[in-house]
Automatic annotation (TrEMBL):
Keywords of the record: ATP-binding, Glutathione biosynthesis, Ligase, Nucleotide-binding
Record field: catalytic activity: L-cysteine + L-glutamate + ATP = gamma-L-glutamyl-L-cysteine + ADP + phosphate + H(+)
Pathway(s) annotated for this protein in UniProt: Sulfur metabolism; glutathione biosynthesis; glutathione from L-cysteine and L-glutamate: step 1/2
Species assigned in the record: Marinobacter algicola DG893
Protein name: Glutamate--cysteine ligase
Gene: gshA
One Pfam family hit: Glu_cys_ligase
């Protein structure tokens, strides 16, 4: 059946193919001039983190998150991301926007300020959720940054695709099923993205102070994984035991939302022991395995835009899957905006092929094998002798990657013929070059650049961050774009102010209602 889906897609004409819808969320730490995590509040000139549509914070007050609107071209999306970066850089004064995924210098949990969102109940809820992450996992791993890539296909495509498959479901259910079809194959192949885009092989010594690890010494203040592609996605990064028990099922929307719902309503003994309050202050939303859906860390998520006060599960159940969020991308420290054009075009190709390839359901055994493949490439992806398990057989990771590239080539040709250019063949060639010469892998290039500079992770990260700042500040913004951002700042601050003025419900009561909804 795999080939038949590709054959069906080959029948699409240039008039029928409307391309992809895409957006990106890019995180990064504010740091002081010495490369230490910023202790200052979120700059007021960047607006309200609760209501600004483009600039917010993730876990920490120092961890910025920049969000593009949805675009139908890679260039449009990257231009928008660059504009947001330029505006941020113009408003950082003497601070720097950290270029790497693994953090700058830290001094334990206390040095990582938890993000504040004001006194409105929804803002307080966001803060308490982050307090919960702190008591559950500590703050260190919450200082790590990445890029999330959001992709969807337009309804015009889905209607034609549904006709081609002879499917009789409602369009909403059909789209949800197809996005989960794509997700299953993404899980089978996500190791490939860690090989091609993993860019965090080293970290500052302060990140692992007092922690047992098996990293090698790079210099006085730097540790690295000799064969690692992404320490961010390894055991030192996003990882915890309570979530290991979840068995979140990615086979279909209902099993996914059911298992997440169960996790949010299943008490976890260690969290029950902590309770929800300490000294009269809320320290977590609840004592379940997950406080809310977003606490579940995964390399990919099915998403639906939520309305104010609506939970992600409710949005998915009532309106179905709207887009896919790819969450495993390290920041590209060589790019002023953390991602690059060739990478985004390759992701489009990669994700479309996940939709067009056969995608049987994943049983528990396969699920374990896929997790092992992913973790092995994260920890040892630059070892040429590393083997992974595909279709029940073990083979070298380099050979598996080449086979997957070969598989993508005809689809790249077809997309280029539909678009009348060579975008996808170029993107594929760029990634093939990394397999031909492993020194071209981002993880290898980071280590090579650090070595050539004679700097450790902290100094090199600071140097790259300063270079990017200089570049972006030098480019500046056109007066109309600057005015639009300044208006967003003012509007977001007044919107937050109005929400806070209108608030009259005690937070405890609000939280109780939220948990019951």
């Amino acid at each position: 059946m795999g080939e038949s889906r590709h054959q069906l897609f080959q029948q699409f004409t240039a008039n029928q193919w409307a391309g992809f819808r895409k957006g990106v969320e890019k995180e990064g730490l504010r740091v002081d001039r010495n490369g230490f995590i910023a202790q200052t509040p979120h700059p007021r000139s960047l607006g309200s983190t609760l209501t600004h549509p483009r600039i917010t914070t993730d876990y920490s007050e120092a961890l910025l998150e920049l969000i593009t609107p949805v675009f139908d071209t890679t260039r449009g999306m990257l231009d928008s991301l660059r504009d947001i970066h330029r505006f941020v850089q113009c408003n950082l004064e003497d601070e720097v926007f950290w270029a790497a995924s693994m953090p700058c210098e830290l001094d334990g949990d206390a040095s990582i300020p938890i993000a504040e969102y004001g006194t409105a109940n929804i803002g307080r809820l966001k803060h308490v959720y982050r307090q919960g992450l702190a008591v559950r996992y500590g703050r260190m791993m919450q200082s790590i940054a990445g890029a999330h890539y959001n992709l969807s296909l337009p309804d015009s495509f889905w209607r034609l695709w549904q006709d081609a498959l002879g499917n009789q479901q409602s369009l909403q259910d059909f789209k949800s099923d197809q996005y989960f079809w794509l997700i299953r194959n993404f899980r089978r192949r996500s190791w490939m993205l860690m090989l091609l885009f993993g860019a965090s092989p080293a970290l500052d010594a302060s990140f692992v102070a007092g922690v047992r690890h098996d990293l090698s010494r790079f210099g006085d203040d730097t540790w690295y994984g000799r064969e690692a592609t992404s320490l961010r996605m390894g055991d030192l990064g996003y990882h915890n035991n309570a979530q290991a028990s979840l068995n979140i099922c990615f086979n279909e929307l209902k099993t996914y939302t059911d298992t997440l719902f169960r996790a949010i309503h299943t008490p976890w003994p260690a969290y029950e022991e902590m309770g929800t309050r300490r000294d009269g202050e809320f320290i977590q939303i609840n004592t379940s395995v997950l406080q809310i859906e977003n606490e579940y860390y995964s390399a990919v998520r099915p998403k639906r835009t939520t309305e104010r006060g609506e939970k992600p599960i409710q949005a998915l159940e009532s309106r179905g899957v709207e887009y896919i969020e790819v969450r495993c991308l390290d920041l590209d420290p060589f790019s002023p905006v953390g991602v690059n054009e060739s990478q985004i075009d390759f992701l489009d190709l990669f994700l479309l092929d996940c939709l067009l390839s056969d995608s049987p359901r994943i049983d528990d055994d396969e699920c374990d094998r896929l997790d092992d493949n992913y973790q092995d490439v994260v920890a040892r992806g630059r070892n040429p002798d590393l083997t992974i398990c595909r279709s029940g057989e073990r083979g070298r990771v380099g050979d598996a990657a080449v086979a997957l590239m070969d598989r993508l080539a005809p689809l790249a040709e077809q997309l280029d013929s539909l678009n009348g250019d060579s975008t996808y063949r170029r993107a594929l060639d760029d990634q093939r070059a990394k397999l031909d010469d492993p020194r071209e892998l981002p993880s290898a290039k980071v280590l090579e650049a650090m070595e050539a500079s004679g700097m450790g992770h902290r100094e090199w990260g600071l140097e790259m961050s300063r270079q990017h700042q200089q570049t972006l500040r030098g480019e500046g913004l056109s007066p109309d774009v600057m005015a639009a951002f300044e208006k967003m700042t003012v509007d977001s601050l007044s919107e937050q102010d109005e929400m806070e003025q209108a608030e009259n419900q005690p937070f405890g009561e609000f939280l109780e209602q939220y948990l019951q909804s």
